[in-house]
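Sharing a chain and its predicted structure for anyone who wants a worked example. Both blocks are below, sequence first, tokens second.
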Amino acid sequence: MSALIPLDRPRNLRETVLDKLRSAIITGELAEGELVSAPTLGEQLGVSATPVREAMMDLSREGLVETVKNKGFRVTTVTEKDLDDLTAIRLLLEPPVMHLVAGRITEDAVSELETLADACLKGADEQDLNGYLTHDRDFHALILSFAGNPQLTELATSLRSRTRLYGIAALAREGKLSASAKEHHELIRVLRAGDGATAEALLARHIGHARSTWATGEEAAEN
């Protein structure tokens, strides 16, 4: 069974456990089909079983695990077709919305986005995948919130969480994830300038990474 790195005790333990377990599934640290129990995971993370069990129930609702009666939770399997479908839906939803968002982000939100983008880059540079993925998720959710459609933000965030990025650890080790992380700062710049078309193209490319290099660790072939 996979072994997870213990957590520091944070102010909001449940949310931190949830983020860690979600990231472990997305990156393959917890493998597809693996059967896990809350007490065992809690022991590995250095926390009690209660916040782990609560987090796993949340992940079950997100479709990342399924409950196994009297045994624990099994990490759901995602096929190549599933990943293709998730990417196709995300490309239909997220990039076009940039036209609605462009020029609408407040200065306070710009400051928050820059902080999140900095945290993503730091996570990439330090190979902290949990930190990278958590801040990346918050970054994109905040941007989408300016479209004024909470259900769209929730759906897009859910689709992002269901993606598998098994190549991302290798890219971080090779220093290639940092280049992708810098796209966050570029997206802020073009949205702040009101350039919806460039923001749409940039986000489409960013999502493409998740299906190609981030999923496999290999560079996508040039067309």
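Comments welcome. The two ends are 40 Å apart (CA to CA).
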